[in-house]
Amino acid sequence: METIIIILSLVLLMTFAYRGFSVILFAPVFALLAALTQGLSPMPAYTELFMTKAVIYVKVYFPTFLLGAVFGKIMEETGMAQAIAHAIIKAVGKDRAILSVCLSCAVLTYGGVSLFVVVFAVYPFAAALFKEADIPKSLLPATIVLGAFTFTMDALPGSPQIQNLIPTSFFGTNIYAAPWLGIIGGIALLVSGMVWLQYRAKRARAKGIGYGSGHLNEPAPIDETKLSHWTIAALPLVCVVVLNFVFTRIYAWDPNMLAPFVAMKLPLVAASVKNVIGIWALIIALVFGIILTISLGFTRLPKGGLAKALNAGAIGSLLAIMNVASEVGYGNVIAALPGFTSMASSLMSIHIGNTPLFSEFTVISIFSGATGSSSGGMSIGFSLMGQHWLDWANQVGMSPELLHRIGAMTAGGFDTLPHNGAVITLLAVCGLTHRQSYPDIAVMTIFKVLVPLFCIVLNAVFGIL
Question: How many whole angstroms separate alpha carbon 458 and alpha carbon 464?
Answer without folding.
Answer: 6
